[in-house]
Specification:
The chain is mainly beta. The chain is elongated.
């Protein structure tokens, strides 16, 4: 017989889980995990209770952040830098909680690795000492295994034509040269020094032969934005950011603006693919002035992001 509060319990108590852990991988969150004993036939679920001043005394003393049969949960909306106190209580199949000590503390991160940022998160990077917003577009680019974090400028960085002649060739075009020559030096030197050369799928102008380019900074392809219209070559695969269409719209000076991809319209020699102010694909002549949205990759473990979204070099 096991005493429980003011009475007695004659059933079988569930055992407490093993390896109760609290780890903060992202700003404002703590991930908790544990392992239950498979042969514990009395076990039904686990209640996790949190306090911010001390460990809970019992299963009612604090905020219940989880109750269920799983082996992990995430506590969100927490104060960066703060320490929280968690205690776990196994519940038996007849609804009685185990109260032997199973507790852990967790301190919330004030920065988080770039590699752990979610697709669609904002990362702020300096250009000419002014913070600019970039979107986490894909984790693992161009290869999901071993690839880097792909960042895409949220708003148009400048306006250019693809070419000054009527040839839809991106390689060496005015847009390509501007990104590598004029734009790249504006990026904070601590960041630009670690931008790797990336092999990007590419459809050439003229005969539109498929191939690859080696670039640090580049425009995304129509394929990567989710395009499948007639006249689009296959250049890579869909980037995770564009699983939905909302990020196709980009602003220049506060208003939606036409912006360029690196993809030629393969139905001819003088058209290329753009994204219009409504987020739809539009084929335009190469002498059309349109916005540039620079994209580049960074090694996700070499940088962290602080509470304001600023990109910083990871501490050694």
């Amino acid at each position: 017989m096991i005493l429980r509060r003011n009475g007695a319990y004659t059933g079988t108590m569930a055992g407490q889980p093993l390896g109760f852990k609290a780890v903060s991988n992202r700003i404002g969150t703590i991930d908790l995990s544990w392992t239950t004993v498979p042969e514990d036939t009395a076990y039904a679920a686990l209640r996790v209770v949190r306090r911010d001043d001390r460990f809970p005394k019992d299963e009612y003393d604090g905020e219940v952040i989880y109750e269920g049969p799983d082996s992990s949960c995430t506590d969100e909306g927490l104060t960066p830098g703060a320490t929280y106190y968690y205690r776990a209580f196994a519940r038996s199949k007849d609804g009685v909680y185990q109260n032997s000590y199973c507790q852990v503390t967790g301190t919330v991160r004030e920065t988080q690795p770039l590699i752990l940022m979610k697709v669609g998160d904002i990362v702020r990077i300096k250009e000419k000492d002014v913070w600019q917003d970039y979107l986490v577009a894909h984790q693992g680019y161009p290869d999901r295994v071993g690839g880097n974090t792909l960042l895409l400028r949220r708003d148009v960085a400048g306006r250019r034509t693809i070419a000054s002649t009527m040839q839809n060739e991106y390689d060496g075009s005015m847009a390509d040269s501007w990104l590598s020559g004029a734009f790249l030096p504006t990026v904070d030197s601590a960041v630009s020094a670690k931008i790797p050369t990336c092999q990007i799928p590419y459809t050439g102008g003229g005969e539109h032969a498929p191939g690859y380019l080696q670039r640090q900074v580049f425009l995304l392809s129509a394929t990567e934005l989710g395009g499948g219209e007639e006249g689009m070559g296959t250049e890579g695969t869909l980037v995770d950011l564009f699983q939905t269409d909302e990020w196709r719209i980009s602003n220049f000076q506060g208003a939606p603006y036409l912006w360029a991809t690196r993809s030629p319209d393969t139905r001819g020699a003088n058209q290329f693919w753009t994204v219009d102010t409504a987020g739809a694909f539009a084929s335009k002549t190469v002498i059309t002035t349109c916005g540039m949205r620079p994209a580049f990759t960074l090694p996700g473990d070499a940088f962290v992001v602080d509470m304001e979204g600023h990109l910083l070099e990871a501490p050694l």
